[in-house]
Design goal:
heterodimer, A: 389 residues, alpha+beta, three-stranded antiparallel sheet, 17 helices, 50% helix, B: 156 residues, alpha/beta, Beta Polymerase, domain 2, two-stranded parallel sheet, 7 strands, globular
Chain lengths: 389, 156
């Protein structure tokens, strides 16, 4: 009897692809022979756009890539620029950044656990995940006035000082969240349906994972204890005490366990950051690069001139190039910036983690069932805004 | 002499005249590699015991107007080393060998620079457009001086 494989088109408007991702699947019965992801539906040319923006005007663009982790993207870009400009960021700003990027990590993981569980059929998780995320968006609004596209970090520090009730508001989260994580675990960790849908699904071998460039929770779920916060500390991460969770499962369930533990570790880091929050300025003293405070702009001639020049002409970093990778919630997000000494980036390249992860989707899905493709997509935690840029 | 500059020395010694040291910043090791030996070079980086560069973090294209550059940021999780590798290509008919069988991560990165910079990747298994539409006919958009529909050119 002659058999033929079937081609099935999944997406781009499929609710479980987390955005506009299209996957061409070659199937034999229900078994996936080949998965070919097609991306680019959200391609907005952010790298090209950045080449015609002043350096400080690039920051809002970075928010719009991974819109679930705006602060991490801001941090990556700002750190790269600070390296290029050789600016020392004040300690307070560094600690506030750590605190906020860890909140961002929780934010991103909460959306992930909600949507991923929803895809697999545990519908209530979606509501719980988004309930907790609301608290974090409240913090974003408190510090920056924006709930999603916060653009709170600046080259040299923060846009404004952290507000007085920041500490109490974040501590509310610290007190509330551990019990909420326990709830998620009650719902999922030992749930037989959840375990059946995730254990042994979408496996990738540790060698393939490293060669495919997987980073973040995906790599750690393959047993690699690799985390840029430890391997290559930035923004004072070396002063914080935390563990890197790993798991040897290499499957969807292992990724779930790693991310859940990461959320707990993030709370640990945030608590340390709040307890030890240093006093001092929130932005570096770098005239001509950092905007002077508003009250000085209104009273001093020199400050007014600097303000005017930064806004209208931008600033010119020295010629050179820099690559800075940071551990975003999804993996390594890298910023490669080439400067030709003009106020515009000559080249701004983003190394997005999700882009690389989607590239490895085929490897994970081959030989699995069609329904497991959904679990695989959920487990790599993609944001298409970042994949396509 | 720091440990890291030994790395560059070893590489320039292993590929004389084909690999040269370049200065980017004091803490960043960087080499310029001739495009004809790219594959041998990366195989050496991956397999040599003192190298063990197992993780390609990023692969970028840069249009330096008089030539094109392909920049590899690569690191070793075993030896905790990092290296920046640059390859210069001519603006007319730029071509480079694929390394996607050595580092799988290079697969999509190479497709990306192929469509955005018009760099032909030799022996790549699948060079269909990744980010751009299939019927794109306005040339590689990341090249300097490229103008397309609705593109607002940077103010002088």
């Amino acid at each position: 009897m002659e058999t033929r494989s079937m081609t099935l088109n999944m997406g781009p408007q499929h609710p479980a692809t987390h955005g506009v991702l299209r996957i061409q699947l070659e199937l034999e019965g229900e078994t996936v022979l080949k998965a070919y992801p097609i991306i680019g539906y959200l391609h907005t040319g952010i790298e090209k756009t950045a080449e015609s923006k002043h350096y400080r005007k690039v920051i809002p663009l970075t928010d719009r890539m991974d819109y679930l982790a705006p602060m991490s993207n801001n941090l990556g870009y700002c750190l790269a620029m600070e390296k290029l400009l050789e600016i020392e960021v004040p300690e307070k700003a560094q600690w506030a950044r750590v605190c906020l990027t860890e909140l961002t990590r929780i934010n991103s993981h909460l959306v992930w656990v909600g949507t991923h569980a929803l895809d697999i059929g545990a519908m209530s998780m979606m509501l719980y995940g988004f309930r907790e995320r609301e608290k974090i968006l409240g913090i974003y609004e408190l510090v920056s006035g924006q709930r999603m596209m916060s653009t709170y970090f600046r080259i040299g520090g923060l846009a404004e000082d952290i507000p007085p009730d920041f500490d109490t508001r974040v501590r509310e989260i610290l007190d509330l969240f551990p019990s909420r994580y326990d709830e998620y675990e009650d719902l999922l960790t030992n749930n037989p349906i959840w375990r059946n849908r995730t254990i042994g699904v979408a496996k990738i071998s540790p060698e393939d994972a490293l060669s495919s460039g997987l980073t973040g929770p995906l790599l750690r779920a393959c047993g690699f204890k690799h985390d840029l916060r430890k391997a290559n500390p930035y923004s004072s991460y070396d002063k914080f005490d935390f563990d890197i969770p790993t798991n040897d499962g290499c499957d969807v369930y292992a990724r779930y366990l790693v991310r859940l533990e990461e959320m707990r570790q993030s709370l640990r880091i945030i608590r340390q950051a709040l307890d030890g929050m240093p006093e001092g300025p929130f932005v570096a003293d770098a005239p001509g690069i950092v905007l002077p405070p508003k009250e000085r702009v209104l009273s001093e001639m020199e400050a007014l001139i600097f303000h005017f020049k930064i806004i209208t002409e931008g600033f010119c970093p020295p010629e050179g190039e820099v690559y800075q990778g940071i551990e975003s919630p999804k993996g390594e997000i890298g910023f490669y910036i080439v400067s030709d000494g003009s106020p515009y980036p000559y080249r701004m390249r983003v190394r997005p983690p999700s882009f690389v992860h989607v590239g490895a989707l085929d490897k994970m899905c081959r030989g699995g069932l069609l329904a497991d493709v959904i679990a695989a997509i959920g487990s790599i935690d993609i944001v298409l805004g970042e994949v396509d840029r | 002499m720091s440990h890291s500059s030994k790395l560059v020395e070893q590489l320039t010694a292993a590929f004389p005249e084909k690999v040269t040291k370049i200065e980017l910043s004091p803490e960043q090791d960087a080499v310029l590699v001739e495009s004809i030996i790219v594959r041998d070079f990366f195989k050496y980086l991956k397999d040599n015991d003192s190298m063990k560069f197992d993780y390609l973090s990023s692969l970028s294209g840069v249009d330096a107007v008089e030539h094109l550059e392909v920049v590899y940021h690569i690191s070793s999780t075993v030896n905790k080393q990092k290296l920046t590798v640059k390859v210069k290509l001519p603006t007319e008919k730029p071509e480079i060998d694929t390394i996607c069988d050595i580092y799988r991560a290079a697969d999509w990165f190479e497709r990306e620079i192929c469509e955005l910079y018009g760099i032909n990747i030799k022996n790549h298994p699948d060079l269909r457009p990744l980010l751009l539409p299939e019927d794109w006919d306005e040339g590689p958009p990341m090249r300097k001086g490229w103008t397309g529909r609705d593109f607002i050119v940077k103010p002088e």
